[in-house]
Amino acid sequence: MKKIISMLMIISFILMIVIGCGEKSLIDYTSKEIIEKSREKSDDLKNAEYNADLSVEFSGSENMGISAPINITMSGQTMNSKNFNIDIAADPGNGFKVEGSLYLKDNEMLVHVPMLSAFIGAEYVRLNVNEAFNKTTGKKLPFDIKKEEILKILEHFKEKTGINSYSIFNFSEDKEKVNITINNEEIETVKISGRVEVVQLLEYGVKFMSFALEDEEARKLLFNDSPEEELAQLKKMINNPQKIEKLMDAIKEFNKNNISLEIYFDNNFYPIRMIFDADVNFKSDTGEKVVNIKTNGSVDYFNIGDVKEIDMPEINEDKVKDFKDLVPNNK
Fold first, then answer.
1. C-alpha closest to that of 60 among 296, 297, 280
2. Torsion angle (degrees, nearest 10) of CA 247, 281, 90, 271
3. pLDDT tens digit string along 291-328?
4. Is the pTM here over 0.90, yes or no?
């Protein structure tokens, strides 16, 4: 009997090894495969909590009165595209710090910026997002565009032009296993590094816009409420080779025009941490002055899928004003 039990244990152990070896570890996927699997789960990140930090530094822009990096911190929860909240603080380094919060629940938005009270007599502004957007632009807010529709348009763009959105991101196959801590939890991740050249990004954007203005499905999805005269002007600008060439040449003159990325994926293919760094130069209209913008930051996602409700704060009516009473109808 003991021999039979021993044999069964040995066989079980061997089967466990064989089965384990058959499972593909995250590090064994190519960077492209990880990105593609992550894209399939992108909707899940619409329900999560997050923390973000951003620093922006200008040079050659002294006439703008900006003398130090602007540091921005954000945190919040998102349940879906119509229900979320954001807390934000911006410090431009001149002793003047701006803080505020934004809450959105089923198209009803509440904006809290304490410094507003000096201008409008209230700390909060309340508005219906659809009504406010329509009131100020005369258009409907494209809240209902679904990911599947966008992916279908991108696939059609790829078929027609041979350009894949993945191709503008130069991701390395030198992946790295890294343990990171998010929200006091240590998580095993795989880090992928990549780089985007601004010229490539602009070229992709111009070609996609040109395609979207001509393709019937893309035009209907992205520009359904735009007047024909506006679309004609946009098409004229996008299809003007002289203007586009001038823009590209202005950027190509400089070496520092790229965006670097680090993305940390957990075992569920969620990109739970993203770190970016950008260094971009712009020429003034006269071509005599160069403005440089350096920006870096990070975003952490956690509690994915666990946000059940977005709570609006309870406030006294004397501290809130309605948006419709503050902004004239610009339709």
1. 280
2. 80
3. 778 889 999 999 999 999 888 888 888 888 888 887 76
4. no
Which DSSP string do the residues of 36-64 spell out, in sequence order?
Answer: HHHHHTGGGGGSEEEEEEEEEEEES-GGG
H-type helices in 76-180, by residue range?
117-120, 129-137, 147-161
The model's pLDDT over 40-89, given as tens digits with 9 standing for 90+, comes to 887 788 899 999 999 988 776 555 555 568 899 999 999 987 889 999 99
324 CB-near residues (< 8 Å, 6+ apart): 127, 131, 132, 135
Nearest Cα neighbor of 192 from 24, 22, 38 is: 38
User: Other CB atoms closer than 10 Å to residue 127's CB: what's the count?
Assistant: 21
Distance (Å, rounded) from C-alpha 74 to C-alpha 182? Answer: 15
Task: Give me 96's structure tokens.
Answer: 């003047």
Interval 140-156: pLDDT, tens? 665 555 667 777 888 88
